[in-house]
Description:
60% of the residues lie in helices and 10% in strands. The chain is of the alpha+beta class. The strands form 2 sheets. A 5-stranded mixed beta sheet has the order 3-4-5-7-6, with helices on one face. A two-stranded antiparallel ribbon has the order 1-2. A hairpin with a 2-residue loop joins strand 1 (6-7) and strand 2. Mean pLDDT is 78; it is low at 248-273, 359-367 and 405-413.
Amino acid sequence: MTVNRTIFGRPLRSVAFDAFVSGVVVLFAVAGVVAQPGGWKATLVGVAMAVALLFRRTHPSAVAAVVAVLALVQVFAGWGPLAFDLGVLIALYSVVKYADRLRDGILAGAVAAVGVVLAAVQTRGVLSWWTTAIYFALVTGAVWLMGLNVRTRRLYVLSLEERAATLEREREAEARAAVAGERTRIARELHDVVAHSMAVMIVQADGARYMLDRDPETARAAVKVVADTGRAALEEMRRLVGVLREEGRPETAAGPGAAAEPGGAGVAADPEHRRLALTELPALLDRFRAAGLRVRHTVTGEPAPLPAGLELTVYRVVQEGLTNALKHAGVGAAVEVTLAHEPGAVLVEVVDDGRGRTVVGPAPAGGHGLVGMRERVAVYDGSLIAGPRLAGGWQVRARLPLPSSAGTEVVAA
């Protein structure tokens, strides 16, 4: 893990670099204390420039103003250009790069242009003053343009980072909305399951009351059905309350294999208020075969009676897995759907070879892809593995533990 160290609220590397730059200016100022015009007074001006440059990132405009005033003092004193005037170029570069408004950089460039003329007039040499002015102007202009180029690149990078952060926030918001919508759908389906169980209990209780005197054995069996169904309904009610809670889970981001978007055509073919069971699984597979998938269905182990909510979860996992295969693997892909009944758990596996072709027509719609599968599997404390296979294609594996009352649920009319 990378630790960004700071000092005075600024990155340590930036502070160290600015201190190094200021140190170079101080070195130039001290080195010429004997030979340069102005002696120790000019050295003090150079040291003041160096101290101001320590704040060139946080207050670039103010630093440029201070350095300009010190350079003006140098001009009025008649010392001419000195070695520590490197600080003037650094201040000009900093105000162009770091100032909030480019207007400050343009103003600093205009002041620097005036300073170039004044410095050229005070320069003594074999060349004419205008030749020296052109040389100083080329150097100053190059520094100004370099600062402008770096400023443009810095603002571009900042805009990309802001755009990436915005997209990340939008993705998180979409994921939260998808999770909320899927939980609402799960709660509605579990509510239907509980309502069905309550209806069964009422019918059986009425039957037991009428048969209590005529046929005690039948009444006793009906009471047992009421008890077993009530236990199963209580368990589903507990899961329903868990779904309605606003507790976030870490698995809220859809992966690359996310299936169809919500609100697709699957609602018409699969009414939300119709109770789905594993008996309808062959019809689901036939629909995907008609859409172009080569689906093979395998059931292993000894099938055990499953709670209605768990059957619905298995159905939805298979539905989303097949939708993913049709959408991403394409028409003609071979898909293996395996339903394994184990002691204490049921395993669902949907594996495709990824060797289909592009889908021509719309794929049968599912729910919310991996978001929906993870939410549904988590309701029953199961585990989900979804990802690409080394041999090609995509795999979805869900393990759903059986509740203790799974074998006792009896549905009777």
